[in-house]
Specification:
Blueprint lengths: L12 H5 L2 E9 L5 H11 L5 H13 L15 H6 L6 E6 L3 E7 L7 H8 L4 E7 L6 H12 L4 E7 L8 H18 L4 E5 L23 H7 L13 E2 L2 E3 L11 E5 L4 E3 L3 E5 L3 E10 L2 E3 L1 E3 L3 E6 L10 E4 L6 E11 L5 E2 L3 E6 L2 E15 L4 E4 L3 E2 L4 E13 L11 E5 L6 E7 L21
Parallel strand pairs: 1-3, 1-4, 4-5, 5-6
Antiparallel strand pairs: 2-3, 7-16, 8-9, 9-15, 10-14, 11-12, 11-16, 12-13, 12-15, 17-23, 17-25, 18-22, 19-20, 19-24, 20-21, 20-23, 24-25
């Protein structure tokens, strides 16, 4: 098996532009070695600067350690270094000759489950670490459940600290079998198990000399070769309007463009489009990409669409193909993860942000709260506290064009915001999930609602 770390020279702009991008997140229980794995990955792939390594070496030497503590490359907060745990999501950007990466190193403690939701919400792949000595524990199952809820397409089970169990194949096989069975039950589409030692570097970037019984890829090899999901490119096209461009100059006296990042699908000149929620229709007469006219554009490109008709469009509207327009609704049913310290309660007045549109809303019901230990449902809890995952029913002041999260992770997601101070309260995923409860009869009287 050959190493994938060459070339060691910095990549040129041309090389970087020709590679694909993989977003991935790490997760695992406290002391499973997430930050060490990330540090080893960056160090052995020669993706850290000399001064960064020197700083880590100084801190490690000050602690009496003979070798650099690679976990310090990601644990940047003082509290993280003092306690030896990860608290906040740490993002790292690096690249090899084959691919560019955006890595989210997320906390492992149950108290910071909401941080994992943040880090994994945009990930194409999640690396779930397990201590080979402990096997699959409650927090492992919790992280697998969150990955399944967020529809992360690829999950890697990294069985770490294999050096502490004598590199025994039977230990790895038992853990891989248990985790795969659980994650498959949750609906995780692809699971890859890799035995590693992040501290010693076994199977992280370089193949291990101690596990000749393992014939699969190293962690980096898998990250470099796993197919990057292009599902959004084949979804129904969606463009949340961020800005209306009207130069009104002598050169462009009649220019009216609708700018934004394509959230899903492909737009082409000549397409019939509908503006939501108004329902007005027109035809795409032009597409500008980086100031250059093009015939087609697709996710995640940022573009400006020009329409054949002067239509009343503003920030927050959604441009969609007329033949694939989603239904608009004021009644939202979703799975949510509550991320704020203050609880979310029935009757809570919030702001709901979907794409570029923000509307007033009220929490109408909380049908259930999910117990991640055994995936059981606690009916009608009345509230969700920090790190809780549950089902909610929300009534919005204005109709919203919503896709199911199972169909599109971009246009099927939303957040709830505290209207008083702008705090993010809850991350939501529209529609059913693996934990969807049976329909709950809603006996709530709408009388007294102000929308």
């Amino acid at each position: 098996m050959t190493s994938t770390t060459e070339p060691t020279e910095p990549l040129s702009v041309e090389q970087l532009s020709s590679t694909t991008l993989l977003r991935f997140a790490t997760a695992g229980s406290v002391d499973d070695g997430k930050s060490t794995l990330v540090g080893r990955l960056l160090h052995d792939s020669k993706s850290i600067l000399t001064d960064q390594l020197e700083a880590v070496e100084r801190v490690s030497a000050g602690r009496g350690q003979d070798t650099p503590d690679l976990a310090l490359l990601t644990d940047g907060l003082r509290a993280e270094r003092e306690q030896g745990i990860t608290i906040d999501v740490a993002y790292r950007y690096f690249a090899t000759a084959r691919r560019r990466f955006i890595l989210a190193d997320t906390p492992g403690h149950v108290q910071y489950t909401r941080n994992m939701v943040t880090g994994a919400s945009t990930a194409d792949l999640a690396v779930v670490l397990v201590d080979a000595r402990n096997g699959v524990i409650e927090q492992t199952r919790r992280h697998a459940a969150v990955a399944a809820l967020l529809r992360v397409p690829h999950v890697v089970l990294a069985v770490n600290k294999m050096d502490l169990v004598g590199y025994e194949e039977t230990v790895f096989a038992a853990i891989a079998e248990e985790f795969t069975a659980y994650a498959t039950e949750l609906g995780v589409p692809e699971i890859t198990a890799i035995p590693i030692s992040a501290l010693a570097g076994d199977n992280v970037v370089e193949p291990s000399a101690h596990m000749d019984w393992y014939g699969g890829p190293t962690v980096l090899e898998h990250l470099e070769t796993v197919p990057v999901s292009h599902d959004l490119a084949h979804c129904h096209a969606r463009l949340p309007v961020q800005y209306v461009i009207r130069p009104q100059t002598a050169e462009h006296p009649d220019y009216r463009g609708y700018a934004g990042q394509i959230a899903a699908g492909t737009f082409r000149v000549g397409d019939s489009v509908t503006v939501l929620p108004s329902g007005r229709t027109s035809t795409v007469s032009g597409i500008d990409l980086l100031g250059t006219p093009v015939d087609a554009a697709w996710t995640p490109q940022s573009v400006t669409l020009l329409l054949a008709d002067d239509v009343d469009i503003s920030r927050g509207d959604l441009l969609v193909p007329s033949k694939d327009a989603p239904a608009t609704t004021q009644d939202v049913e979703a799975t949510v993860c509550h991320v704020a310290d203050a609880p979310l309660t029935v009757g809570h007045r919030v702001l709901l942000k979907h794409g570029t549109r923000t509307v007033k809303a009220i929490v109408k019901d909380i049908p259930s709260r999910l117990t991640l230990d055994d995936l059981s449902l606690h009916p009608h809890p009345g509230r969700l506290v920090a790190n809780d995952i549950g089902r909610v029913k929300i009534r919005t002041a204005e109709p919203l064009p919503l896709d199911a999260y199972a169909d599109s992770r971009r246009t099927g997601a939303f957040i709830l915001i505290d209207p008083a101070d702008g705090t993010t309260l809850t991350a939501g995923m529209v529609g059913e999930s693996f934990a969807a409860p049976q329909p709950v009869k809603d006996g709530t009287d709408d009388e007294g609602w102000d929308f």
